Batch of 2 targets.
Target 1
Amino acid sequence: MTRRVCTILIILFYILTTVTSYHLRRQKRIVGGRAAAQPPVDDPVVYLTQSDRQARIYGTRDPNKGFYVFRGIRFGRPPVGLNRFQRPIPQHLEGEINATKWGPPCSQPDINGKKIIGSEDCLFLNVFTPMLPDASDGYPVLIWIHGGGFRRGSACQYEMRNIINKKLIVVSIQYRLGSLGFLSSGTKELPGNNGIFDIMLAVKWVEDYIEYFGGNPKKIVAFGHGTGASAAFMLALSKLSKNTLSGLIAMSGSILSHFAIDKNPSSTVQYIASTNGCPTSDTIEMVRCLQQIPVNRLIEVDSSLETIRSTIDGFLSGLSNLLGPGPVIEGNDDGRFLPNLITNTPENFLQFEDFPSIPLLMGVMNNEVGGAIFGDYKTEIENKLRTVPDFLNKYLIPTLQNTISNFGNKSHSITESFSRYFNVFNTGNNSAQIAKIAEAMGDTLYNVPAFLTVNYWAKKSEAFLYSFDHKRKRNCNNNFLAGLPIVKARHADDIPSHGDDLGYIFKENTITGESVQCDEESNEENERVENVFTNLIAEFARSGTPNITVSSQGDSLFSNLLPKFSSKTNPFISITSTPRIMEQFRYCEIGLWTGLAERLKSNTCNFLKNTINIVEHEAQKVKNIVTNPVKTEDRIADVMPNFTVLKNETKVPKIDDLMKNTKYKTQKSMSRSICCSFRSDILELISELGLSSVASIVSTQISVSVCLIMSSGDVDCGISVSVTTSIE
């Protein structure tokens, strides 16, 4: 009897121990201990406990790809009522959460601009994961920031494709758009940048919760396209998100892009407020008034501003400008109010290396604006070429120069230097002219900002560059950036243009998340490009160093590391079905637009060589005159026979007066000084007494005053040389 009782007790103890052990393992997974095996694949549930909060999040499983999706998870409280135009308030996970449906997109115009869609209550995100938590350290996390000109787009447009099978977690997020997200008066009452603060709050949510979905909170890579890429840079550059990101991926956008920053926010807020019938002199009253305006009315006024800005210069403004409210530079904190997000100019952030030491992967399309230029804009361009006198030199080139004015050449006299680059304008070939316009706009709006960004980034951290050169063979990418001028006027050929690369990473949905049916046939070449591209992104997210598949001979492929960007060789990968590692990215074109004289003087860039030689020759003549003063017109005429020489009949100012005038560059030598005054647009040329940058290589007129001044200040001689050059 005793033996039987003992046996029963042993059995009961075993059962109790087994049940307790299972319960403890289950409890550990719920409260965040070592993860247990994933739940049944068709019934994904995430359990979590943080502090005194508990939550269950119910998701779905993709029946075809097998990954898990948790849709429409709120990360911020509704930014409505008095919370409109305010920084977002976090929403913690708690209770039962149904994450099986998309959240509404943020308020915006529809694809045709005729209706308003979405909701002001839109701070939702989606989590795509290949596996629920297990005993591993967690997968790297990509945070997807959609583009759309800070006016359009949603997280639910982007359904994950093959990238989710690369052992990554992707979180797609939403942020307030238009005036609701970016209107700024430049004051503490309306500082702006709330859309970027939304993104920052979503990243904080990922830091706090992603481990419960199988992700590694220490491996977070911000990943954006167009204005979404610009926003990703702002996130990385802000001290408020310090030590948050482990990497940055930027597709067709940069912090230096012309569309990244609203350069005239006061004009924007004046228009938005006055058109909505709100006061503009008292910021507090203006904000109170705008908080009462119906959301649809706000979006309609945003659209009217977009129409005005996109038609000022036609296709030039439609493709290059920020067409509505956008991020602003707030300036340094004063210590009295909430800390600012963007405290300096993008140029200063990069030039002074005030950015985190994290790897950067940056990419551009082969012909970013080609699809639009050969689309609906083609007729407008043809009309301008036919009817606007000297459209190239008076409108196109100055406008494009202005898009990179902080880094490029500011002298309009450089226009002559483009004569060889734009030589097709002398042929009468309309198609060739339009193609050259597309190339030039692609360079100034996308390629130059990308080059400058990776060039600066590589001085402090690792940076990598790619060019997506695969010709488009997809017909299902029309909804990703729907409504933007750069895509709504698309031409239907195979030009690899803005947004075409998105279809190789994501499956396309409508703006509200409905699946788009596409009758596109399976294409082996497309699948190959998709595999190359997603592998590049996945490997970068995992290691910070992209490992890519590179063509060797014919179809023979081998694995290779993409070399780090360097200012000497400018390496990049050309993404096609047979990708190649190449060097000197857009070498001559970037030299032209940014004023890199050494490039333009090289044998590689011979399209400007003759022009440079002419100007160098004339510059040497000026140097000879300055360093070897002469007193007679005849002597000057001998040295510079093609120049008009005028004798100076007026007394030259004394040296003390010259020293006070910043227009003069004065060099003292013993008891004598040689003083030269020059036009401001060629100051660099003369200060170096030679060719130092393309910013100074061409001037339609050079005015030189040469004087020899005794130590007493009396004028010994005075000669004025007026130099006129004409370069064909």
Target 2
Amino acid sequence: MKSVVLSQLTDSVYQRLMRSMGGILAFQDLAPKASHSDSINVMTDMLITGLNRSGAFNLEPIHLYDTGSYYAITGFLATVFIFALSLFTVLKMNQDTVLKARLKMFHFSKERLLIIRALITWFYTMLWSIVGVVWIMFSIPNTFELYNWPTLAIHLSYYVTFFNTVVITHRTFNTGLLNSISKVILAIVILVLSGLTIPTIFLQHIANGVFNIQPFAVVTNQLLEIILNNYILELHPSFYPSFIALLIINLAVLVWRYRQ
């Protein structure tokens, strides 16, 4: 927290000094015949005015979360992921062994079953999410107000829908060993690199902050803000574009498989 505050203060003072210097250079260009005394007075006035003016800080909120509350929410999100992945796997049953030969006889049959499994998983995972949120509201100290429930519902739906869409996409492409590897990578991204086990503040300087802008990390941070602080300061710019991009990719993959 101290490093963020010092960084913002340093950046703010630097920006004000640069604005003052720009004003001084502009004065010298517009009044080339000004005396040395006038130039000194203008420089002093601009410097004092620039440093006293309430300059704009970078919009980078600092939140202090109770450790227990933090891991109660992130643990809930982790259970949502584990529940969805487990249910998706259970619904597959013995499809690969018993029905494999028969499924090859019907066009686009595996993809249809995959979509049906995803819809069933989405429905029951949403029910699990609702139960988990109600439990969190009554079990940890929070400032959440009921007028913010649409925002909370949007983020939970986004989290579950995004995960199911990712699973459909990667299982359409991958089979066998590659499917297992991609599943492990997905689990690492969600459970480790999205703030569920390691707070995202410790990941913001790794790989140019790429882990902080991935959709699952964005949802984690937004849910922490809305539940514990009852507001979201600013919706992340990648919130909707990332979902739209994933949806387009998923539709393109399904159309490609259908035309094969």
